[in-house]
Amino acid sequence: MSESRNAILGKLRAGRDAHPLTPPESDFAVLRNKRWEGAERLERIRRMMEAVHTEFLETTEVDWPADVQAFLKAQGTRNLLFGPATEAGARLSSEWTEGGPELVPYADRVETFKERLFDGIDAGITTTLGAIADTGSLIVWPTPEEPRLMSLVPHMHLALLRADALYDTFWQAMTENRWADGMPTNALLISGPSKTADIEQTLAYGVHGPKRLVVVVIR
Amino acid sequence: MGETSINFAKASSAALQDQQLRGNFRRAMDGLMSKRAVQFADTAEWNGVRALGASVRLRALSKLPELLEKLEANCTRNGIQVHWASTTDEANAIVLSIMQRVNAKLVVKGKSMVSEEMHLNAFLEKHGIESLESDLGEYIVQLDEAMPSHIIMPAIHMNTKQIAHLFKQKIKEAEYTEDVAQLTDLARRVLRKKFATADVGISGVNMAVAETGTLCLVENEGNGRMSTTVPPVHIAVMGLEKVVEKLEDVPPVISLLTRSATAQPITTYVNMISSPRKEGEKDGPNEIHLVILDNGRSGIYADEELRNTLRCIRCGACMNHCPVYTKVGGHAYQAPYPGPIGSILMPQVEGLEKRGELPHACTMCNACVEICPVKIPIVEIMGRLRSEAVHPGDAVRGAGSHASKAEAMVWKGWSMTYASPLAYQFATALLAKLGNAAPASLPLLKEWTNVRSKPRFANRTLHALAREKGIPDV
């Protein structure tokens, strides 16, 4: 179809060259100037995300695996999907105790795991690259160790957030970390559990993705 | 669809009689307008981000051919296969050939207005492929065998009761319920099975980043992520104007888009896709195809003024604020894109012969221009298209197709009367004497008087009254 390609590009070039367009400068100050101090960031993230039904679990570096297990046990969760090859995954498997929900590793390609993933998994846990104060969003970059569907298919998504990995805006997060130099297969912002208002503007949670999002804040 | 003219006046008149429909729209639009206003309550911030958003879109348009080439190069380097389509027929054929190669029987779709433009579902069904909409609103509309009535909220024309009946009638395992949470859960159960078994996922593109070869999608439900992650093949379709130059251009546009569209600071998911599954990754599609569609856009781009139509980020705010759209709803436009943006886009895409009536579906009140997050001069373009429709030319397909000798004569007479003081004096004096005697049922007058009272003419003209006060005629 390179015929269409050349025709389209040729037409665009001719149109533009006949009437060139000088765009105004892009002034990013409106984003650059959005700032929140210290504790305000996390407070704002929590307030915004709770407004769209996100739950928060406060814990510490030492206690988080035990706290996650206790939380899930109290919820009656049968199992938790995790990435065994990450540092967080290693902590989970070494500190998980008998009698809690079953730990299920995402160890195989989805082709051999799809049925169980869709029908037999209650919760999934992933790490995050931080959160954004402006919009109350988690930054999630799936990896081979923490595949894309872990934060999507299980009915509950638990996301580990380090309380010092916070940004003011989406723009700040991507420019400071030079995302443009190398984007991953998939990069996500997640700002709550799945929701819809397609039936008469009435909000309903858990339409296709997770019904519950639990942010595990590690201080 | 043929080239016959579509009758907006008739369809809108029918819509105006439908009290249920009007109630559904009134409620929804009032809510959207007030919630959006809260999101942009800080005027300085709104002005700043709006100027930035407009500059991002204009910069992209200023380099459009180069950016599309760059997008193609970077996508290709990332492993995304890029296809170009001049027409919707060509785009459909590209999609079908990919499907046939992988022997696809079931397709799940995320929301995509370009696929509506292509009438892709009907095309695939014709070729024996089940194409299932997975956005809840689109799913409802598809079950109802109807068209979306809003680009953001496809099923906004229906209320819960109507949807409850529809589900009971069309979904095998459905129990009748008007509980929105239960209806939503039912759709979840039905569609999850489909996501797990679909051969291909189709999505639109909110923005494509030339710099990195990244496709950005925003959504709340997770169906977009499902459609682009679970099936082994992902096909994204986009209009060629959807490209932006840099990754840092994405945040301001997304901020304007989600706040303008649904009054959310951000959607639940912002999904940025830069490549198919890489070696060692456990999920994600093995193939990604990007279909770049022209369908008249390069023609729009050639005109300096009309080009501004292509700034659009498809937020739908112009619909929510339009005094015409909010009364008649989306179906009256009989087009994939209704409302103000549809009224300027459809005539340019499908030609003025067929869509020449739409630029008249506007009171020129400017409400859409005031809230457009990328400052599209919608009303100016509306006026331009009205003029194009009656003057033969080559800027827009079908220019001159609505020319009428009678109308031209009326305008000519009007302008002559206003150019000559004598003729003007004579005409006003005549109307002062005879205006009230003209029956309200006169053919042309009736169009106005059948829903309004006939204005009363003063029996002396303003000029005569002024002369009496000692103010001389010039």
Account of the protein in words:
The complex is a heterodimer of chains A (219) and B (474). Chain A is globular. By secondary structure, chain A is α/β, with parallel strands linked by helices. Chain B folds into three domains: 256 residues, NagB/RpiA/CoA transferase-like (Rossmann fold), CATH 3.40.50; 93 residues, Orthogonal Bundle (Fumarate Reductase Iron-sulfur Protein, Chain B, domain 2), CATH 1.10.1060.10; 64 residues, no CATH class. In chain B, 51% of the residues lie in helices and 10% in strands. Chain B contains 23 helices and ten strands. The longest helix of chain B is centred in the first third of the chain and has 21 residues. The mean pLDDT of chain B is 95. Chains A and B meet through α1, α2, α6, α7 and β9 of A and α2, α3, α4, β1 and α8 of B. β9 of chain A pairs antiparallel with β9 of chain B, so a sheet runs across the interface.
CATH third-tier fold name of chain A: Rossmann fold
Specify Rg of chain B, calculated over alpha carbons: 26 Å
Count of discrete alpha- or pi-helical segments spanning 4 or more residues of chain A: 7
Total beta strands of chain A: 12
Relevant CATH superfamily of chain A: NagB/RpiA/CoA transferase-like
Mean pLDDT of chain A: 97
CATH class type of chain A: Alpha Beta
- The rounded Rg of chain A comes to 21 Å
Quickly name the level 1 CATH class of the largest domain in chain B.
Answer: Alpha Beta
> In whole angstroms, how far apart are the ends of chain B?
57 Å
Low-confidence stretches of chain A: none
What does this entry show, briefly?
The complex is a heterodimer of chains A (219) and B (474). Chain A contains 7 helices and 12 strands.
Labels describing this entry:
heterodimer; A: 219 residues; alpha/beta; Rossmann fold; four-stranded mixed β-sheet; B: 474 residues; 10 strands; 51% helix
Topology readout:
The complex is a heterodimer of chains A (219) and B (474).
Chain A: H1 2-18, H2 29-32, H3 38-50, E1 55-59, H4 64-75, E2 79-82, H5 87-95, E3 102-105, H6 114-119, E4 123-127, E5 131-132, E6 137-140, E7 156-162, E8 166-167, H7 170-176, E9 186-190, E10 195-196, E11 204-205, E12 212-218
Parallel strand pairs in A: 1-12, 2-3, 2-4, 4-7, 5-8, 7-12
Antiparallel strand pairs in A: 5-6, 6-9, 10-11
Chain B: H1 8-17, H2 19-39, H3 43-62, H4 64-78, E1 80-85, H5 88-101, E2 106-109, H6 113-118, H7 120-126, E3 130-133, H8 136-143, H9 160-170, H10 180-197, E4 200-203, E5 207-209, E6 214-219, H11 223-229, E7 233-239, E8 243-244, H12 250-262, E9 269-273, E10 287-293, H13 297-302, H14 317-320, H15 325-328, H16 339-350, H17 352-355, H18 367-371, H19 378-390, H20 405-419, H21 421-434, H22 443-449, H23 462-468
Parallel strand pairs in B: 1-10, 2-3, 2-4, 4-7, 5-8, 7-10
Antiparallel strand pairs in B: 5-6, 6-9
